[in-house]
Design a protein that fits this description.
The complex is a heterodimer of chains A (about 160) and B (about 290).
Chain A lengths: L1 H23 L4 H4 L5 H12 L6 H15 L5 H15 L1 H6 L2 H26 L10 H27 L1
Chain B lengths: L1 H4 L11 H21 L4 H31 L3 H39 L7 E11 L7 E4 L12 E3 L4 E8 L4 E5 L6 E6 L5 E6 L6 E3 L13 E4 L11 E9 L8 E6 L8 E7 H14 L3
Antiparallel strand pairs in B: 1-2, 1-12, 2-5, 3-4, 3-12, 4-5, 6-7, 6-9, 7-8, 8-11, 9-10, 10-11
């Protein structure tokens, strides 16, 4: 029973670990400024496809891990991820019928909100304002999200039909 | 009931979603508040940091492998050229070092004559950079030494050429450090030529530090070398920091617009050195002896 439950949660655990690895991977600076917020996108994906199992709680936990690994204020990424997971879970039915283009636009807005929340917390905490390229990851999500979404829903569909 | 719990259910409402979100947001804000005010949460942070450590090592592995592959596949002639270069460099350094010993002795003698305080000896240790922060606007990095290696908050980090940054948070096996180019970093420096003291602020660009506190008539020129003045307490004095690149004196403004370029290529460092000053160590040992219960 517990083995069955563990294997049910395996996809999200693997995707989150890969996401964290991609977040921590050292990159040259030119690529670094457009590195997408992998974990935010992965959290959106799971809150969209299985909002009952993986919602705000997992977003919060991932956010805490992200805060520690990035050395930001404890709770900063957690707040951003919780909020976007809430919005995704709240509107997941509407989002599911969106065509991919519209969905990407919506995710773009969510990602911008996420970055804004981080930015806002920095402002309140008195950490100085970053440059324009701070918003680079929001732009790159426009390219990454359709690929990530297609890839991950493909895998999920296959796993479900086989199981 | 069971059917409505499955993830593919068509019910729009998820029970208590809003409530849970509010509770978690409140928790986040409390955490941020506690973390920002004091360092109450260091224990929790260390625990999560230790849990993430294996992943950090795995992520770092390809980069290390790349470096290792580069080293092992270097051609024999390249190695010989490098060897020759290093030999020549070593000879030069040795020659300088001979003079240094004599100078150090002379300096000590002169200081004794002037009744000045002895300068502290500094201990150094090499550390490797494990990761750079994904956020390019907080110029921070993770190094592979932690509390176990006696690292402390505020410890200076240098490289063979000059100052790199300082430790801001120590973990069990890794520590975080910020670079001198971090927008939140300020470093007390002096102009090597004439001892003019000022503060160099990070700008968020790797290649530029700002020196906003210099009067329009200050004696500073393009090309001046800035070294640490040792006044902040964190950095030992005399390490090279940056060279002045622009000096703009605007007549009606009280302060000159001065910026400098760090000597170390901050976005390319791979190995750094941690510096312990003996004064700091004895002070720290005294405080830990007082508070340590173990």
């Amino acid at each position: 029973m517990s083995n069955d439950r563990a294997s049910r949660h395996l996809p999200i655990i693997i995707s989150l670990i890969i996401g964290l690895a991609l977040t921590m991977l050292p990159l040259p600076r030119a690529l670094d400024i457009i590195r997408p917020d992998w974990l935010a996108l992965i959290i959106i994906f799971w809150a969209l496809s299985a909002p009952r199992s993986y919602g705000v709680g997992i977003a919060f936990l991932v956010g805490i891990v992200l805060d520690v690994s990035q050395g930001t204020l404890l709770g900063q990424h957690a707040l951003g991820l919780t909020v976007i997971a809430y919005i995704t879970a709240r509107f997941h039915l509407q989002m599911r019928v969106f065509p991919l283009l519209q969905l990407t636009a919506f995710v773009f807005a969510l990602n911008a909100l996420y970055r804004f929340l981080l930015f806002w917390v920095n402002g309140v905490a008195g950490i100085s304002a970053p440059a324009v390229s701070y918003w680079g990851p929001v732009l790159s999500c426009l390219v990454i999200w359709p690929l990530l979404f297609t890839f991950m829903s493909g895998i999920r569909y296959r796993a479900q039909t086989r199981g | 009931m069971v059917a409505s719990r499955s993830s593919s259910s068509s019910h729009a409402r998820i029970p208590a979603l809003g409530l849970r979100t509010l509770a978690l947001m409140f928790l986040c804000i409390t955490l941020m508040f506690l973390d920002h005010r004091d360092n109450h949460l260091d224990a929790a942070r260390n625990a999560v940091s230790a849990a993430v450590y294996p992943l950090r090592v795995i992520v770092d592995a390809p980069v290390r492998l790349w470096h290792w592959a580069g080293e092992t596949t270097q051609s024999r002639s390249d190695l010989r050229i490098e060897n020759d270069r290093l030999r020549a460099e070593n000879l030069l350094t040795q020659a300088r070092l001979q003079r240094l010993n004599a100078l150090a002795a002379e300096n000590a003698r002169l200081r004794a004559m002037l009744d000045a305080r002895e300068q502290f000896e500094y201990r150094v240790r090499v550390a490797e950079i494990m990761a750079v922060d994904a956020n390019p606007f907080r110029h921070s990095l993770v190094i592979d030494v932690g509390i176990g290696d006696d690292v402390y908050d505020g410890q200076a980090i240098v490289d063979a050429e000059g100052v790199v940054g300082q430790v801001i948070r120590t973990g069990p096996m890794t520590s975080e450090a910020i670079l001198i180019s971090d927008p939140g970093h300020a470093l007390p420096v002096e102009v090597n030529r004439n001892g003019l003291r000022t503060i160099a602020y990070g700008t968020g660009e790797f290649g530029r530090l700002d020196l906003p506190g210099l009067a329009n008539n200050a004696d500073i020129e393009v090309g001046d070398l800035l070294v640490t003045s040792g006044l902040g307490g964190a950095f030992p004095s005399g390490y090279p920091v940056a060279t002045v690149t622009t000096v703009n004196r605007i007549p009606q403004q009280p302060f000159a617009d001065v910026s400098a370029t760090p000597i170390v290529a901050l976005d390319q460092v791979r190995e750094v050195m941690l510096v312990w000053s003996s004064a700091r160590r004895s002070e720290r040992n005294a405080t830990t002896a007082g508070t340590d219960d173990e």
